[in-house]
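Translate structure to sequence.
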């Protein structure tokens, strides 16, 4: 496939106005699926299950099986709707969305169409410079996920060119909330940045509610980005494309920018945009055609005959409203002030997705500075080297316990890094690793003085220099003592003892 022609981004924005829209799917972390009692693979402990082991007759569309609505999923959906500033329907119902795909055993998806659980809301997103942008929400509706296809053979891992495909129905029936925005106008040059910030805001909201792991790399959170362009001064909207299932916030930003440049080049050459889904390619930073994008009529929606309407009691809605956590933007600003971080320090924590880990570490007894140092420093370094999530490596409680050993003088920073590696390797708590490896700092002045005297005996010229006032020469003795102590000495205390011995 030949590379698409792209227009310079600034030139594209001179000629055309971008109009954005987003459909974000949130997998709920309920114990069971949306319409069956099968375990939910979106729940963290079920994530690595073998294919086709988390299934029930309803998930496979077997004859005679009937769906039953997951009450916890309904509560989570209402909480999310409220957090998005939406109105909650007094009565809503499910519908059948008809289309054939091999990983949809029933040949239809149970979703919501004209009667969503939540509607007419808005959410504020914060850009990196602190600018606030309001994103209008059209609806948030409940539905079930489809299964997963693995295409075997071929060069791309996609169905084109594959020898055969494998179907895993574990994901079929996972509870989803789909959040649909209204058209977003006025984004202009900041359209890609706004796209990234919006997805980050949804992630922060659902994590704050505790209703989803919200990990894009695992598909807990999936974004479809709609982009259209219209010539400056034109009222009619342009034809949109929908880039599907982009799996990182950085990729959402890049995909929106790419589509603006690609569409602008086509329109400027007198071409037309095809209304279609498009696939994002992380390796090349490009999109490619998927399928023609269907409109609602093509899905032949009709009310789901096997499910009664959902009619949440107003008392339940108000109970869930009262239980809403602090909004993410307000929480971030409060924590930044409480912790005394600079803008750059706080941005490092936020960009690393480590806000909750740092907060929990501080709550466990660490200082804010130490918590930030560990999470954005050594823990992130190890996570990147092992291609793992930093939050999976170690608990905030163990990080706080590690820092307490440093504060007590039991460990130096260098020894603490060794202890950290032991904790991550599964050797126990920080104290258990210290005991098992014998890593505690040597605090016996007698042992340190003996090592200092040995170093002086081996380097008499250094002792003479120190006595003559050249205290920088103590560095050679400190190095020798640290080597003798296998790094298990406090360098500052060693220096004090060296100067005391030299003064005698």
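Result:
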């Amino acid at each position: 496939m030949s590379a698409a022609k792209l227009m310079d981004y600034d030139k594209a924005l001179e000629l055309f106005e971008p109009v954005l829209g987003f459909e974000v799917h949130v997998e709920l972390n309920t114990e069971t699926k949306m319409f069956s009692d099968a375990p939910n693979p979106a729940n963290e402990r079920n994530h690595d299950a073998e294919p086709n082991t988390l299934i029930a007759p309803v998930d496979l569309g077997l004859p005679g099986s009937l769906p039953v609505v997951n009450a916890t999923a309904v509560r989570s959906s209402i909480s999310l709707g409220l957090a998005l500033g939406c109105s909650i329907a007094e009565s809503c119902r499910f519908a059948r969305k008809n289309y054939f795909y091999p990983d949809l055993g029933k040949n239809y998806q149970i979703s919501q169409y004209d009667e969503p659980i939540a509607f007419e809301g808005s959410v504020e997103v914060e850009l990196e410079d602190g600018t606030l942008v309001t994103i209008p929400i059209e609806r948030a509706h409940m539905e079930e996920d489809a299964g997963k296809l693995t295409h075997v053979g071929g060069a791309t891992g996609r169905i084109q060119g594959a020898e055969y495909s494998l179907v895993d129905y574990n994901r079929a029936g996972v509870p989803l909330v789909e959040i649909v925005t209204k058209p977003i106008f006025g984004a202009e040059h900041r359209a890609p940045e706004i796209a990234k910030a919006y997805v980050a805001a949804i992630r922060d909201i659902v994590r704050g509610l505790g209703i989803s792991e919200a990990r894009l790399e695992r598909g807990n959170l999936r974004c479809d980005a709609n982009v259209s362009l219209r010539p400056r001064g034109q009222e009619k909207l342009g034809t949109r494309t929908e880039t599907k299932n982009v799996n990182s916030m950085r990729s959402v930003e890049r995909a929106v920018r790419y589509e603006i440049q690609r569409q602008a080049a086509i329109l400027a050459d007198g071409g037309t945009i095809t209304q279609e889904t498009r696939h994002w390619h992380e390796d090349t930073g490009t999109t490619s055609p998927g399928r023609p994008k269907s409109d609602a009529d093509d899905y032949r929606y009709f009310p789901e005959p096997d499910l009664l309407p959902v009619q949440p009691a107003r008392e339940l809605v108000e109970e869930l409203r009262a239980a809403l956590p602090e909004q993410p933007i307000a929480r971030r600003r409060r924590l930044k002030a409480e912790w005394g971080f600079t803008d750059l320090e706080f941005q490092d924590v936020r960009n690393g997705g480590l806000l909750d880990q740092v907060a929990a570490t501080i709550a466990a007894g660490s200082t804010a500075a130490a918590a930030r140092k560990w999470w954005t420093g050594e823990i992130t370094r190890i996570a990147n080297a092992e291609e793992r999530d930093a939050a999976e490596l170690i608990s905030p409680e163990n990080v706080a316990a590690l820092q307490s050993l440093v504060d007590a003088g039991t460990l130096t920073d260098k020894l603490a890094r060794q202890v950290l590696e032991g904790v991550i390797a599964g050797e126990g708590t920080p104290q258990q690793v210290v005991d098992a490896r014998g890593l505690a700092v040597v605090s016996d002045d007698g042992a340190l003085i003996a090592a200092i005297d040995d170093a002086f005996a081996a380097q008499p010229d250094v002792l003479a220099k120190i006595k003559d006032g050249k205290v920088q020469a103590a560095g050679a003795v400190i190095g020798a003592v640290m080597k003798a102590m296998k790094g298990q000495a406090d360098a500052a205390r060693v220096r004090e003892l060296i100067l005391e011995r030299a003064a005698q």
